Amino acid sequence: MKQKDASLNGPLLGCDPFLLNEGFAIAKEKGLRPKHQITIIIPRNFGRDAISGQYLRFILAVFLFDTHRETTRLKLKSILCAQSHSIEQASHQMNSEVNRIAEMAEAGERMIERLRKKAFLPEARKGLAVRYGIAEAAQLLGCSTNRIRMAENDGRLPPPPATKNGRRPGYSIEDLLNMRQVLDASPARATLDQPAIIAVQNFKGGVGKSTVTTHLAHYFGVLGYRVLVVDCDSQATTTTLFGFNPHFNITREQTLYPYLSIEPTQTDLLYAVQRTPWPNVDLIPSNLELFDVEYELAASGADGGSVLAARFRKLKSGLLDLAQQYDIVLLDPPPALGTISLAVMQAANALLIPLAATTPDFCSTVQFLSMMEQVTEQIRQAGIDVSYDFVRLICSKFDSNDPSHAMVQQIMEQSFGPALLPVPILESAEISHAALRMMTVYELERPIGTPRTHKRCRANLDQALGQVEQLVRRNWGVTSPASAAEVVNAT
Ligand SMILES: Nc1ncnc2c1ncn2[C@@H]1O[C@H](COP(=O)(O)OP(=O)(O)OP(=O)(O)O)[C@@H](O)[C@H]1O
Ligand SMILES: [Mg+2]
């Protein structure tokens, strides 16, 4: 939000424009960039006496929320110490409960970072330790173990990994990718096949969108596809599951923001693509600051419609360009009907809707579908085309021991027919335990629970996500043969 918006947005956000303007001025003086989230924690009414307290509190909030860097916090502390008298006065007047929000946020952030470091030490950065035996490798490549051994013997492939304590550590994902190249077993699409751009979308929160997105990414990754994951949600769960701490490791400039902003600083999306521990899975990360995109639209006033339409077109064209380097692009939008969700809806060419087998999820999903119908109609009327290669629902947390899940699953089958994928993703402690380590089940080196639980979970994921792979592949290889010129000119 810019300074000039303060008089407009102050009342909207329930705080005094004067305070906002003052805060902006101070932030500007200090060369800091204020964030709109802070304004929400300023109480609506305050007396004259409370002004200095509120004022300090506002400055504090500007500094705290402005940056991730510890140095700024230290700077802030010294500024505040220098004004300890006023602070003391302010602290009496401040609402201690509101104060606690910032403290809880800080403590929580420190804990996330500790968890992340614990999970990924020694390099404090997530690595990929998962390995595959020769039988599993052969199965994944769709060839015999003999074929791999022969290629290793005749030097087309490097020698098998050396044995350690009488056991082979197995092949890495890199090894598998190399095998695919050498043995001509790549699943990649043909040049003229369209990359699948799948939005994993539902406006209901907590239905498993990010879990499905990341597991799909790694499922496709194991199979050798080139995958791009775009975290479009400022909550950044997907970014976290890729081992990044959105608060400490990601800046606003690394998210979609510079491209989608009202005053964009990027003209394409290449800048945002980050490598992940998976050699064939890339990520456009997110953090809380991506929310500014939503905010800017609200602040754009009468121009909102045209700004919105421009962003729709922009995300779509940016992703289409980028998608040419991949087989599959997965979009994880926020659980709300906002600018980004609408833009994602329009940029995708396929829609996967996760939902749990519970009545509230079923009802919300029905609402989501009817809202989708209305919104796509409106988008179409605005001259923007929306079309999908497939739209499917997937039950994302199915508990086979809970009879109510079976009943709701039946209701869903009756309502949605073949649009509901027949194999649900089972609710599994292995998935939630992996999430605790900021991982997917495909990244686990060894089972977290019992080997049986792990095996069951992995087999179910392969089967459930395999349904999506089939849908993607259904649209490949059906293009009419290309002319020689098209092949030569294709990117
Ligand atoms: N199949 C599953 N088994 C066990 N836990 C699951 C499963 N699917 C999702 N979860 C858990 O449910 C919670 C919500 O999942 P997730 O964050 O993927 O939902 P979401 O739809 O992306 O949420 P949001 O709407 O906030 O973006 C997480 O704790 C996740 O670990
Ligand atoms: Mg999510």
Describe the structure.
The N terminus is likely disordered. The chain has three domains: 104 residues, no CATH class; 41 residues, no CATH class; 295 residues, P-loop containing nucleotide triphosphate hydrolases (Rossmann fold), CATH 3.40.50.300. The protein contains 20 helices and seven strands. A seven-stranded mixed β-sheet has the order 3-4-2-5-1-6-7, with helices on both faces. The two termini are 39 Å apart. The radius of gyration is 25 Å and the shape is globular. Helix 1 crosses helix 2, helix 3 packs antiparallel against helix 4 and helix 3 packs across helix 5. Helix content is 50%, strand content 7%. The chain is an alpha/beta fold. It binds adenosine-5'-triphosphate and magnesium ion (MG). The site of magnesium ion has 6 residues, from helix 10. Magnesium ion binds next to helix 10.
Supply database-style keywords:
binds adenosine-5'-triphosphate; 3 domains; 50% helix; alpha/beta; 491 residues
